[in-house]
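ligand=flavin-adenine dinucleotide
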Amino acid sequence: MGNPKAFLTIHRQEAGYRPVHERIDDFSEVEQTLNSSDRRTQASRCMDCGVPFCHWACPLGNKQPEWQDLLYKGKWREAFHVLEQTCDFPEFTGRICPALCEKSCVLKLSCDEPVTIRENEAAIVEAAFREGYIRPVQPVRNDKRVAVIGSGPAGLAAANQLNRRGYEVTVFEKYELPGGLLRFGIPNFKLGKNIIDRRIRLMEQEGIVFKVNTMVGSEVSAKEIASTFDAVCVAIGSEVPRDLPIEGRNLKGVHFALELLSQQNRILEGIAIPPKDIINCKGKKVLVIGGGDTGSDCVGTANRHGAASVTQIEIMPQPPVGHNPATPWPLYPQVLKTSSSHEEGCIRRWNLASVRFIGDKNTLKGVEVEEVEWLPAKEGSRPEMRKTGRTEVIEADLVFLAMGFIHPEQEGLVKELSLAVDTRGNIAVDPATNQIAGTNIFASGDAVSGASLVVRAMASGRKAAAAIDQYLRDK
Ligand SMILES: Cc1cc2nc3c(=O)[nH]c(=O)nc-3n(C[C@H](O)[C@H](O)[C@H](O)COP(=O)(O)OP(=O)(O)OC[C@H]3O[C@@H](n4cnc5c(N)ncnc54)[C@H](O)[C@@H]3O)c2cc1C
Ligand code: SF4
């Protein structure tokens, strides 16, 4: 803790977003960066608490106080070496992590101005790339081979960890390019895809083989992979979206959120989309059903297309603004979140259930919604929803369903390997090792936990890699 009084005298300073009028016409990253001097000043605010709650809150167990202190002292290289011990890809988490650590920072509790931990993390890793501290390493090989199925953050973290331990790693990915939802889910305005390309290039230089356009469980046999590799890590994500099976669901104009988001990312990659399949929101009234982050990403995308209007509705009540007594510090606060996409223009409404899609000649015209009320949860139960009978029609030419994901695809690989699933449909593993009992197969990420966060997927991939290493050593 280089400057013991900084937290008393220096305020939190975020780099902020590019101005709306400048960013709304492009898909480049919206977040800006501070200069190195301001960044070090921000790092000086860390109090190096006796109990670092930031460290407790981070699923990767990042050692934030250590690297804040090194950053404050201008020891960028040393700060990076501490950061890389626990985090494989700080360039991803530094951009798109919801910063669970900052919500648990003691300065969040005392003055609502936590240390800018996430932005500092991004600055450290970007300096490391810029200054050339990140170079391909060539591990000593141990003649064992591991297959990773799925190249999202869980699969990438597992592959990176195993490669560094000397295993020959092959990553199988069904899509055209590696990255999972980082690549074909999260919009470019949150995470530029050059950032993923840079990391994949490095991983390839370090010896990891990526086999894209390879769907395991149909094009390639999963059983064959399990028998020819010493171990397998299944990291196939949680891809089945929650549907809204109400009247009119089949009307032209009703889409899952990822149909829009993944298509947009493909277009930006230069991947050709058949003209008949292109979803464009220009001049359209857009309704997003689902008030979460995926919905917010649809809002930002629709506005960049030039939508006539964008409305986002949510069945649950509006969360409290600022502070929620139900989730006291150091817990992650369940409060109203206003994203960069919301700032760009969007009507947000809560307590609305969707009753039916209304169409004319098979084309969507609107959605009938009904206002609902929520009765407070009784001890041990969930809040109870009550319909009010008050209905209205929201006009819409396009609807995007952003109501979450339910579980991994149950056909294909899961069926071929006869993998057991839990009551929610996620792959069932030994919670201590992520191993599937009695096999050389391990699983990680959203496929095990259900849809979650990049930082949790990376932590899960690291855990599976450590368990695979132990398993193969014991063998
Ligand atoms: C629109 C959207 C925005 C999000 N934004 C954020 C955010 O800002 N911050 C955040 O922390 N989290 C965010 N998330 C959540 C985050 O992206 C996921 O939790 C995370 O990507 C899960 O990682 P994963 O590796 O488990 O799975 P995924 O990223 O889903 O990767 C799984 C990979 O496996 C591949 N695959 C599946 N089946 C097969 C098969 N049979 N053979 C070969 N390959 C296969 C898939 O093609 C995919 O590439 C967002 C999610 C969505 C949908
Ligand atoms: S990964 Fe997320 S929770 Fe962990 S230190 Fe970085 S921003 Fe904080």
